[in-house]
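Worked example 4.2. Below are the chains of a multi-component assembly; read each line carefully before continuing.
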Amino acid sequence: MRVARFIGSRFWLLAILLISWQILAQARILDPLFFPPPSKVVEALWAMLRSGELGRQSAATLARTGISLMAGVIGGGLISVLLSVSARLRAAVQPLVTALYATPRLTMLPMVMLIFGVNEISRAALVALSVALVMIIQISDAVRGVSRDYVDLAANYGASRAVIVRKVYLPACLPQLFTALRLCTGRALVTTISIEMLSSNDGIGSMIWMSWQTFATEKLYASVTIAALLGLLSNPVFHLIERRLVPWAGGRA
Amino acid sequence: MRLKCSQVSVTFPSSDTPVTALRNLSFCNSDGEFLSFVGPSGCGKTTLLRLLAGLLAPCGGSIERIPGPFDRNSSVLLVSQEHNLFPWMTACANVAFGLEMQGVPRAEREAGAAELLARLGCAGKERAYPFQLSMGMKQRVAVARCFLSDPAVMLMDEPFAALDFQTRMVLQQELLDLWEQDRKSVVFVTHDVEEAILLSDRILVLSEGPGTVVAEYEVPVPRPRRAPIEIDGELWDLKQRILASLSLEAGIARFACTR
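Applying the procedure described above to all two chains together yields the following structure tokens:
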């Protein structure tokens, strides 16, 4: 009952849109060549699932996303720690990060390919870079946001610098770290699929581009739906982990 | 422990005009004395406590820590007005934090913390996080942490200022009870003259910023004390004299500003 109400409260608008779309397409008010009715899209999805194409392409995208996400989170995390420690390094790196962050990620793909070649390493490197930038910005922000009062409080009780890092900075930054991970996952998925559209023989992005090139509109809609679903599903996973690991943040807005 | 301030000055650099928070402030408390500072807002009370806690260095003058015969350690701990609990620790872990820093094993420090919390009427709140506690509970936890760490001097920065009248009265009594058992040196800061009279042995009046000591009063009330105390007769005179030195100070400052 609660589940039903939850789904009802979240998806009523989507349901109305889909049903109207179905009716309009069937009545030929919408051109089914451009706007195939949802039932046809579902059929296409089912066919792709049965042929194994869906699984193969999703797996390719997820593997790319996962590996580059990990590399970017770890790399970006380590860089953020260094930046938090050294003010001199921070001053020098900050403009670089800001500039890179403001540059559309895909414009850097040709340059990355010049360096690493047209291969998986280039694709992973670009995704990892864009994840690392989000990490650096979020974590630096979190560290700067740690209240001086808590640092003073620990120092007053005789805590050493190492203890202050472990007992104050780390827990104080934890909620924003989870936000960062959530943003990074979304960013990694978006960047991976975009790169696949430009330069890849497999993955969801490539599937979308191929469907467009061959004007297979049902498959096109089906692929975009899968891309949307992957993004949608990554969010609640992090929310669950966060609620477990940061129970004290319940009072935060 | 005694804290001896001699001619202490603090100036904060600022972009346009540097702000002098304290100027030539001198005082010395005695062992086991409950000493209060009262002063108008902006008289540098918080700055004074941060200095005494060692979180800030004076720009001029000196602060000496003179150990007393019964001190078990040399720590000077501050209970501040707000942001004084770690949001990521339970009430129990917050109270036990001082002992944790002293290297006391977990079981022992948590037992001590739970016992003290129970005495302060917070039984059952050990596992609660600060966001689940009321203001009064939070201040109890902060005071409990300070007491459990057994410092040589306790510094308190308007710990009850944000509380409603009834809660404040209850907490004042709890503080009196705790303190009168095992008299430690306390330096208490407040803007509430009656609170200062209720709690203290001696009251120093600070001038409006830059702060310095302008008057000193003994509080002739025997201990143990019960809150609320009747402010009449001798105490009413005392309160009027303190208020007079406060408003005289404020008046002088305003006069100086308008000139």
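Take a moment to check your reading of the output against the notes. The interface with chain A takes residues 50, 53-55, 75, 77-78, 80, 82-84, 86-89, 97-98, 101-102, 129-132, 149 of chain B (CB under 8 Å). The mean pLDDT of chain B is 88.
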